[in-house]
């Protein structure tokens, strides 16, 4: 592998470590119930409602989304890199470099967007928290 590929792999690893696997979480309005139970209990109940949604089969398809974006990025990168490399007389090298860059880009795009919670899972969590007395003002 050339140095470009090594650098891209290192970049992906660094970004993965910095991004983590955190997903969106509901933001609660500090109503009387929230104030009465406190932030610690509220966070525990958010986690409980999210776990219930997951156990009900309502989970995001983040792995599939990331894989799809990675493949799309690799294909696009290979096509652009091959075309650019052909102009310079190095179509194969250009395609390989483009595929590596496209793979990294597609993977990262998919990773960032995979953190978005499925709308049905969001609704489930909102209903669960509402039943407990919380008011959800959004997701972050």
Helix-strand category: mainly alpha
Proportion of residues in helical segments? over 70%
Global Rg: 21 Å
Termini gap: 39 Å
- Low-confidence runs of at least 5 consecutive residues: none
Number of strands: 2
Instruction: Tell me the quaternary state.
Output: single chain
How much β-strand is present in the residues? 5-15%
How many structural units, i.e. domains? 1
Strand order of the largest sheet: 1-2
The main sheet comes to: 2 strands, antiparallel
Round the mean pLDDT to the nearest integer and report it. Answer: 77
Number of helices: 5
Topology pattern, helix = H, strand = E: HEHHHHE
Shape: rod-shaped
List the helices and strands and how they pair.
Blueprint: H1 3-19, E1 26-28, H2 32-55, H3 62-88, H4 91-114, H5 119-132, E2 136-139
Helix pairs in contact: 1-4, 2-5, 3-4
């Amino acid at each position: 592998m050339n140095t470009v590929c090594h650098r891209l792999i290192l970049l992906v690893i660094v970004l993965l470590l910095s991004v983590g696997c955190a997903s969106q979480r509901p933001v609660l309005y500090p109503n009387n119930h929230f104030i009465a139970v406190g932030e610690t209990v509220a966070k525990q109940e958010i986690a409980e409602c999210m776990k219930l949604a997951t156990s009900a089969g309502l989970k995001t398809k983040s792995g599939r989304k990331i894989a799809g974006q990675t493949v799309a990025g690799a294909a696009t990168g290979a096509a652009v890199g091959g075309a650019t490399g052909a102009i310079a007389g190095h179509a194969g090298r250009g395609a390989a470099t483009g595929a590596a860059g496209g793979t990294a880009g597609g993977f990262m795009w998919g990773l960032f967007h995979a953190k978005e919670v499925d709308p049905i899972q969001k609704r489930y969590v909102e209903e669960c928290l509402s039943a407990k007395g919380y008011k959800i003002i959004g997701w972050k």
